[in-house]
Amino acid sequence: MRVVQGLIRVALVVLLASPGSAVAEDFPSHQITMVVPFSAGGPTDAMARIMSERMRVTLGQSFVIENVTGAGGSLGVGRVVRAAPDGYTVSIGHLGTHVANGAVYKLGYDLVTDLAPVVLLPSNPMVIVSRNNIPAKTLPELLAWLKAKPTPPIAGTAGAGSGSHIAGLYFESVTGIKLEFVPYRGTAPAMNDLVAGQIDLMIDQTSNSIAQVRAGTIRAYAVTDAKRVDSASDIPTTDEAGLPGFHMTLWSGLWVPKDTPGEIVARLNAAAVEAMGDPVVRQKFEQLGLEMPDQNQLSPEALGAWQKSEIAKWWPMLKAADIKMD
Ligand code: ASP
Fold first, then answer.
1. In whole angstroms, what is the distance from residue 300 CA to residue 195 CA?
2. The pLDDT of residue 64
3. DSSP sequence for 121-184
4. For ligand 1, what atom is nearest to the CA of residue 46?
C-alpha cells in the first residue's frame, strides 16, 4: 500500500513539474503567429486581423499575421502542421482550406488528425459579382450573357479548392455554364483584376466584395443565401434573383498543431469567444456581411465535429469533379 501511495506521489510530482503544464500555465509569454493562407487584404486576412486585435486584449500578447499563400491555402496550413505544438502558431482557414483541400490536393498531412480545432469563426455567404463593363444588370441577364459568350467566361478564384473555386464549381453544376477558372493567391488580387476588367466574374465572399460593390466598381447580382445580408440589403438573394436553392455559406475557424496542450487550446478558445462577444468586433463583422456562429458551436469539440461532418458532405462531390490544380 505504502509503495503504491509513494508511486502515486512520485507520479503527481512528475506530472505537476512536467514542462507541458508549466508551459501551459505561462501561455502566452510572447507573440503569437496567426498564419493566413491567402493574400493580405483578402477576406481571411481581414478576419484574422479583426480577431487577433481583440484576442490580444484577453491574452496580453500581440499577434503577428503571416500570409503564407499558394495552392488554395494548403501551403499555409502545412506551415502550421509542422510548427511546434505550443499554441504560438495558429492556423486560420475555412471550408476550403480545412475541408475541400483534403479532397483536391495530396497534402502530406491530415486535416483532422494533424491539427487540433480551437474555435468556429463567423461565416459568410458568397456573392455573384462581375466586372462593370458588361451589359447584364440582373442575374437572368448575366446568365444569358455568360451562356451566349463565344469564349468561356473567366472566373477568378483564390486557387483550386478555395471558397471562390468551390462556389464556382457549384455554380457550373447548377447553371450548366462552363467557366475558365484563373487561380490567384487570394481573392484580394483577383478583385484587383475584376475591378480592372481583366476577368469576367467571381463568386466571392461577401466580405471581400461588399466595399467594391458599394463603390460601384463591380456589379453584384445575388447573395448565395436564403436571406439578404443586412449590410447590403439591396442585393437580392439567389432565390429572389432566379437561381433558387443556390446557397453556400463559407464558415471559418482556428486550429493549432496536434498535441497542443488542452489548457492552451482552452485559452485560445476563450480569447476568441470573448472577441466574438465584443460589440465592436460584432459590428465590424456585421458590416462585412459576416454571421456569428451559434453559442452552442463555440467549443473546440464542436468545430472538430463540424469539420468532420463537412468532410463527409463535400469530399464525394469534390473527388468526383475533375479539379485542375494551380
Ligand atoms: N478566403 C480566401 C482569401 O482570403 C478567398 C477564397 O477562399 O475564395 O483570399
1. 39
2. 98
3. EEEEEEEEEEESSSS--SHHHHHHHHHH-SSPPEEEESSTTSHHHHHHHHHHHHH----EEEE-
4. 4
Span from the CA of 1 to the centroid of ligand 1 (angstroms): 61
The structure's pTM equals: 0.89
Name the β-bridge partners of 67.
36
Which of 83, 193, 200 is CA-nearest to residue 133?
200
For residue 129, what is its C-alpha cell? 459579382
**Ligand 1 within 6 A of CB of 199:** no
CA separation for the pair 76, 66 (Å, rounded)? 9
How far apart are the CA of 12 and the centre of ligand 1, in A? 47
The C-alpha atoms of residue 256 and residue 115 are separated, in whole angstroms, by 6
Beta strands 63-67 and 201-205 are unpaired
Q: Residue 44 CA: which ligand 1 atom is closest? A: 4
Per-residue model confidence as pLDDT tens digits over 213-233:
999 999 999 999 999 998 899
Could you give the CA distance from residue 96 to residue 236 in angstroms, rounded to a whole number?
25
Phi–psi pair at 253, nearest 5 degrees: -165, 175
